């Protein structure tokens, strides 16, 4: 899906924001690696795929990880 999004994003002058998230209650299997690390890695991977597909760096405004601080749907 990301590969298909790259072409229309290249065609627009708009800059994009890429934000990664995690589920609430994320428990990392690695010490020293938390939800912010995972969500930032997810966002950065999206950036890498889009750039590999030809999206210019100038089209990217920011890349960030929010962990579980901004849920799309609140968890019970």
Question: Please, what is the average pLDDT?
Answer: 91
Structural class: alpha+beta
Task: State Rg.
Answer: 14 Å
> Approximately how much beta-strand content do the residues carry?
5-15%
Continuous helix count: 2
How many domains, as an integer? 1
Q: Give the helix level as a range of percent.
A: 25-40%
The CATH C-level name is Alpha Beta
Q: Report the end-to-end length measured between terminal Cα atoms.
A: 30 Å
- Biggest beta sheet summary: 2 strands, parallel
Low-confidence stretches: none
By CATH, the topology is 60s Ribosomal Protein L30, Chain: A
Give me the count of strands.
2
Adjacency order of strands in the biggest sheet: 1-2
CATH architecture: 2-Layer Sandwich
- For CATH, the homologous superfamily is named as OmpA-like domain
The H-and-E topology, N to C, reads as HEHE
Shape: elongated
Describe this protein's structure:
36% of the residues lie in helices and 14% in strands. The protein is of the alpha+beta class and 76 residues long. The protein has a single domain, classed as 60s Ribosomal Protein L30, Chain: A (2-Layer Sandwich), CATH 3.30.1330. A two-stranded parallel ribbon has the order 1-2. Strand 1, helix 2 and strand 2 (60-65) form a beta-alpha-beta unit. Helix 1 crosses helix 2 (35-52). The longest helix is centred in the middle third of the chain and has 18 residues, at 35-52. The radius of gyration is 14 Å and the shape is elongated. The mean pLDDT is 91.
């Amino acid at each position: 899906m990301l590969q298909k999004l790259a072409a229309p994003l290249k065609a627009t002058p708009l800059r994009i924001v890429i934000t990664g998230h995690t589920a609430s209650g994320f428990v990392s299997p690695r010490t020293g690696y938390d939800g912010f690390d995972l969500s930032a890695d997810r966002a950065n991977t999206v950036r890498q795929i889009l750039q590999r597909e030809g999206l210019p760096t100038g089209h990217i405004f920011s890349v960030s990880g929010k962990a579980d601080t901004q849920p799309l749907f609140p968890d019970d």
